[in-house]
Amino acid sequence: MPTKLFLLRVLLVFVLATTLAGAQSLPASVEQALKRAQIPLSGVAAYVQDVDGGRPLIAHHAAQAMNPASTMKLVTTYAALELLGPTYTWKTEAYAGGTLEGGVLRGDLILKGYGDPKLTLEKFWLLLRRLRALGLREIHGDLVLDRSYFEAAEYDPAKFDAEPLRAYNVGPDALLLNFKAVRFQFVPDADRKIVTVIAEPRPAGLEFSAAVRATEGVCDDWRAGIKADFQSNGGSAKASFAGSMPAACGERYWNASLLAQPNYVHGVFRQLWEELGGTLSGTWKDGAVPADARLLATGESASNAELVRDINKFSNNVMARQLFLTLGAEVLKLPGRSDRSTQVVRAWLAEKKLDFPELVLENGSGLSRQERISAEHMGRLLLEAWRSAVMPELMSSLPLVAYDGTMRRRLRFESIAGQAHIKTGSLSDARTLAGYVLDQRGQRHAVVLFINHANAAAGQPAQDALLQWVYENGARRRN
Fold this sequence. Notes:
Elements: H1 2-21, H2 28-36, E1 44-50, E2 58-60, E3 65-66, H3 73-83, E4 91-101, E5 104-113, H4 121-133, E6 138-139, E7 143-146, E8 182-189, E9 194-200, E10 206-215, E11 226-232, E12 237-246, E13 252-256, H5 261-275, E14 279-280, E15 284-286, E16 294-300, H6 304-314, H7 317-332, H8 338-351, E17 373-374, H9 375-386, H10 391-397, E18 420-427, E19 430-438, E20 444-452, H11 460-473
Helix pairs in contact: 2-11, 3-6, 3-7, 6-10, 7-8
């Protein structure tokens, strides 16, 4: 039996080598762009294949494990569309942990989260407004946060790039509210020469001040003249802005994550609840929903397909992490944890007879130094997705070249504009893309290009050259 297994593996390797040997290497236009960017061919992997099968059109270092950056979201979102379903929704529940009479709750109000990737300020306000409409006015107790749907884990927001206040570094949480971010809106008034700065939300626990002038001149780097000072200990925070910005810039935004997750939820709850005319006598604490608690109201998210669109169009790392953990929690019926979600994804791939031994998943978002997949296997995943019942939902979630998402400003005046759905990825040493190109003769191709090199940031012209080449030459190069 071991001998037969060995011979089978040898045969598979031979077949793969023969298939890839029939593919050409990188087009001359791509190689020239890489040369200008001083990116060696050894730091590049590419795979292009007709969705209807046949030999790969291009295969360059296709079997090499690479950092896919945000194109890893394709693995997470495709798995989620199939395993959870396009219409799957997340809920957030509010319970009364005491007696409720005459608008007064003598006990705690419990909020239970189920990992909603997009529990926005507006959605949360609607949930609280529903509580007020039901007659709840005074809470004579604490706000209890049940975050047990995801397993509690230590998370360091500074680990990835030493930028702990950046909104994209926010960690996952079963009760993640508004991406745990405060959005500072800068509104210049040229006549009065002032800039009004608005914090939204403005949670309890955040001290905020601003003194920014509106100046004349063109808008270049609007933040250059602004001095921002952020101070945070997790439980409370201070934010202040001083300096100036050109009025010609118009309204601009600056997002920051300043409070620890439970403090943020409590602070926003208190702000909105008081604005709605309610009171909360206590503070916050972590806990679970008691068996005798009474369900008061439930908020529901948008559908999985809609949220997947946000994740891929705009490469939202925080939402992708939430979705990734949901896979483990929902499928295994255990608290969401990264290794459990990895187990679920691997089992899903195995059911499809997709063996990706080099695959490394850390958080499913691609904002990682550890995640790996080969260009060939990303391409095979795209080919499998093309035959899936959820193909329309997945494809429509990818940025349309020259029109929207992360591709809206690229190839705008080229013939490929509007003819490709492409997910991009970007790290300091990685520039990647993966998706579908409809060539000028109406044939669709799965296209993958990974650049892992210190000069990767200069690799966009090479990416664009490959997309344009496939659009112009794909059908003529078939078989």
